[in-house]
From TrEMBL:
<dbReference type="InterPro" id="IPR022281">
    <property type="entry name" value="ATP-dep_Prtase_HsIV_su"/>
</dbReference>
<keyword id="KW-0888">Threonine protease</keyword>
<dbReference type="InterPro" id="IPR029055">
    <property type="entry name" value="Ntn_hydrolases_N"/>
</dbReference>
<dbReference type="GO" id="GO:0009376">
    <property type="term" value="C:HslUV protease complex"/>
</dbReference>
<keyword id="KW-0378">Hydrolase</keyword>
<dbReference type="InterPro" id="IPR001353">
    <property type="entry name" value="Proteasome_sua/b"/>
</dbReference>
<dbReference type="GO" id="GO:0005839">
    <property type="term" value="C:proteasome core complex"/>
</dbReference>
<dbReference type="Pfam" id="PF00227">
    <property type="entry name" value="Proteasome"/>
</dbReference>
<dbReference type="GO" id="GO:0004298">
    <property type="term" value="F:threonine-type endopeptidase activity"/>
</dbReference>
<keyword id="KW-0645">Protease</keyword>
<dbReference type="GO" id="GO:0051603">
    <property type="term" value="P:proteolysis involved in protein catabolic process"/>
</dbReference>
<comment type="similarity">
    <text>Belongs to the peptidase T1B family. HslV subfamily.</text>
</comment>
<dbReference type="InterPro" id="IPR023333">
    <property type="entry name" value="Proteasome_suB-type"/>
</dbReference>
<protein>
    <recommendedName>
        <fullName>Proteasome endopeptidase complex</fullName>
    </recommendedName>
</protein>
Length: 210
């Protein structure tokens, strides 16, 4: 019993497979904003297919601009593409200082429309004390209205754990982020349990490495 499909239908079907692969980022990046603090965490594992290549990589960075709070940035996806996008985001923050949301929107517009940028395979998580956002190559800019946002293969685990802990009295943004990352990276086989952690407090322009 055989079913023959028109060639144009087959082409459309096979085109969906690379897209699904591109959207699968093997890492865990988590941002939590609460009580005037914003905390960004990322695991440190780099993989090539099913092989663990490096267990001590740094996937989160700080963008510093004079007279404005530091912006914390994390990436899920290709390392080379991540650094290209970091440079582009820094350029947008030069154009729109102190306006992280505007910078993210402009990055998404450029990412979607530019022939070179469209090839970059990564998801960006950017945050400051006023907001947390993710940007992807489809032109999507998502804001973490609940105070929690994550990316990567362990992102859903991290988001669920952080949201469950968010309203627990007495837990700070850092405590929530650490507990949620421990849960996520213990479940996600593409992330490890070694983490980097950065924090910026509202009213202070400088970030802290925790």
């Amino acid at each position: 019993f055989f079913v023959f499909l028109p060639s144009n239908m087959l082409r459309r079907a096979f085109k969906t497979f690379p897209t699904a692969a591109k959207n699968y980022r093997t890492t865990t990046i988590l941002a939590v904003r609460k009580g005037g603090d914003v905390v960004l965490m990322g695991d440190k594992l780099v993989t090539a297919g099913s092989v663990a290549v490096k267990p001590t990589a740094t996937k989160i960075r700080v963008i510093t601009k004079k007279d404005h709070p530091d912006v914390l940035v994390g990436f899920a996806g290709s390392v080379a593409d991540a650094f290209s996008l970091l440079s582009k985001l820094e350029g947008k923050l030069d154009e729109y200082p102190g306006q992280l949301l505007r910078a993210c929107v402009e990055l998404a517009k450029a990412w979607r429309s530019d022939k070179y940028l469209r090839r970059l395979e990564a998801t960006v998580v950017a945050c400051d004390p006023d907001g947390i956002y993710t940007v992807d190559g489809m032109g999507n800019v998502l804001e973490g209205d609940s105070g929690v946002l994550a990316a990567g293969s362990g992102g859903y685990f991290a988001t669920a754990a952080a949201r469950a802990l968010y309203d627990v009295e007495g837990l700070s943004a850092e405590q929530i982020a650490r507990k949620a990352m421990n849960v996520a990276t213990s479940m996600d086989i593409h992330s490890n349990e070694s983490h980097d952690c950065l924090k910026v407090t509202k009213g202070s322009n400088e970030s802290q490495k925790l």
